[in-house]
Amino acid sequence: MEDKSSIVVFIDDETQPLASFIPPVNFEMDTRKLVDGKHTLRIVSKDPTGKEGIRLIPFEVRNGPAIDVEGIREHAVVDGIIPIMINAYGKGDQKKFLIQGSETPKSIPSWVWILIIGFAGWALFYLFTYLTQQA
To answer: What is the per-residue pLDDT across 10-19, written as a single tens digit (0 to 9) for each?
Structure first.
């Protein structure tokens, strides 16, 4: 029998491996067992001669309810009174989609107002031009 490489998978700085395999392999990682936040998937491979290779894959887990904030951004410089809207909604389970609270209402962006005012001004200009030519 020929010697094969081995793969050991770790999450963050854990000393106990998540899984150990003989390549090639497909597996499913259950993120519901991890806390929300940033994590690192550490994959250690060892060939038959004993040489090791390591690959680090950073990822972020968000199993909890999504939190959406409007009115302030990360690392913003603010002063005075600022209106803030916060919405939190869960995904439900994989079989049922929750409509109630799944969308965060947003204010109309300023560029939309500029387009509306510009179009209205253009329409009024041509309306007055047309009416003055009819008289």
So the answer is: 999 888 998 8
Do the beta carbons of residue 65 and residue 88 sit within 8 Å? yes
Contact 102, 89 (CB under 8 A): yes
Tens-digit pLDDT profile for residues 83-105: 888 877 766 555 655 555 556 66
Q: For residues 69 and 104, what is the distance between their CA atoms, to the nearest angstrom?
A: 9
Residue 54 CA to chain centroid, in angstroms? 27
Structure-block tokens of residue 111: 């560029």
The more confident residue out of 34 and 102 is: 34
11 near 39, Cβ under 8 Å? yes
Query: Is residue 87 helix, strand or coil?
Result: strand
Can you tell me which residue has the tokens 């690959």? 55
Distance CA 37, CA 97 (A): 24
Instruction: Evaluate whether 45 touches 52 at the Cβ level (below 8 Å).
Output: yes
Helix residue spans in 16-103 (DSSP H): none
> Residue 1: pLDDT band by 50, 70, 90 thresholds?
very low
